[in-house]
Amino acid sequence: MTAEQALPRWTRNSAHALATDDRGHVLLVRVPPGYPETGRWTLPGGGLDFGEDPAAGAVRELTEETGLTGRIVSLVFVDSRTQPPRPEANLGEWHGIRIVYRVEITGGELRDEIDGSTDAAAWFTREELQSLPIVDLVAVALEHLEKE
Predict the structure, then answer these.
(1) How many whole angstroms separate alpha carbon 10 and alpha carbon 33?
(2) Contact 14, 6 (CB under 8 A)
(3) pTM of the entire structure?
(4) How would you list the strands of the sheet with 41-42, edge to edge?
(5) CA–CA separation, 33 and 12 (whole Å)
(6) 148 pLDDT band (50/70/90 cuts)?
(7) In the predicted model, is pLDDT for residue 60 greater than 90?
(8) Which domain holds residue 105?
(9) How many domains does the chain have?
(10) Alpha helices in the chain (DSSP H)
């Protein structure tokens, strides 16, 4: 058995909020140093706690990462991706299942997360997004927004 075969496979379920304001700006959060894809912008969201309803997880993550509160409007998409083992990080094959909800912002004040899995939160125009370093999840979400 090789070292890669000895590493366990794992699955991560995550839920995310796709929110726009009345002018069409998209809400994103930035990945901080020390995480994969550092410096890139993504949708508010993250891993679900054991037994947590995905919709509740998306709203929880929205508040944790941006200070805003919201309500689920609809399910936008569910997708998945895989990554090969990364023995240097002691990680086996990885399967990520991503659930994205359309969320209406209902309150709160926009703020950056402190000591969390993001370090900035901001609204962006579609034009600004074209030159922004984004993760693939945002690209997929933007394709769905274009269909609305």
Answers:
(1) 23
(2) no
(3) 0.91
(4) 41-42, 26-30, 120-124
(5) 21
(6) confident
(7) yes
(8) 3-147
(9) 1
(10) 3-6, 54-66, 126-129, 136-147
